Amino acid sequence: MTPTPKPASKVAPSTTCEDVSLVILKRTKSLKLTRDKKQGFLRHLRKSMKPKNALIVLNELKDKGIKISDFTINSNPDGSYTAIVTVNSNQYQKTAVSKMAAKKLACESALRDYAIAKMKARPRKPKTNGGENQPSTNHVEETTENEDDTLELNLAPYAMYKLLKKWKRKGYFKPEKYSLAKAQPQQEDAGRGRAELPPNWQTMHPASLLHIMRPGIKYMYYDKDVELQRSGVIVDNQKITAYGCSKKVARRNVAVNACNILFGTNFTPGE
């Protein structure tokens, strides 16, 4: 009886330092690629979730088939403004203390009606029995889901805008960037400023005139009150504030009030 030969034992391939370095390098590149993709996704998400008001969101929805007419702004005797706009054959009219605020309120009503109509128009998925052959509706369902996702992506920044606005109104955010109560009155130096208006003051910008008459004036900006930006300044120990639809307009209106009160000018505030 001849003995059966033993199978030859497999010799494990030797691992060199170069092979280990190559594996580590591949893993490092893979981790770096995954980290870069994640960071890019987070940047895109932060950008897409940036708070936006209804006016901006409606303008972004123009590419999705929504039709928006030009605004019609009417001035009211009490100083307020009425904005009228037509969105998808529906007319919206809102009144506010400024033109921009009236536009935003009208767009909020239009966006709300548009979103609710889209949500109500969503088809319900039919109940199917396992044994019955039903016609395929995958294409219709995918199209509807894509439209719904687009609408929700547009509504998300507006929801963030409304949420932050509500929190600010309830006082969860600091209402003022600089507090007038804590601000020290400005001491006017004897050698600074002018006593007489320049000869061409009527053609000058109010802020420029105020800077010439009282150099070193610092403007203070506060959080938006409803839809308006508030700004303030302390001149000759007087606290003067004004509102505007933006920081630029609010700054001009503060300068207008200061010049009219202190120097007897007749500048007209902006909207």
- Which CATH class of the largest domain? Alpha Beta
Radius of gyration: 33 Å
Q: What string, H for helix and E for strand, traces the elements in order?
A: HHEEEHHHEEEH
Tell me about the largest β-sheet: 3 strands, antiparallel
Number of domains: 2
Comma- or semicolon-separated keywords:
flat; three-stranded antiparallel beta sheet; single chain; Double Stranded RNA Binding Domain; 271 residues; 2 domains; 6 helices; siRNA binding; RLC_Component; alpha+beta
Account of the protein in words:
44% of the residues lie in helices and 13% in strands. It has six helices and six strands. The protein has a three-stranded antiparallel β-sheet, with helices on one face. It starts with 16 loop residues before the first helix and ends in an 8-residue tail after the last helix. Residues 175-191 have low confidence and may be disordered. GO terms for molecular function: double-stranded RNA binding; siRNA binding.
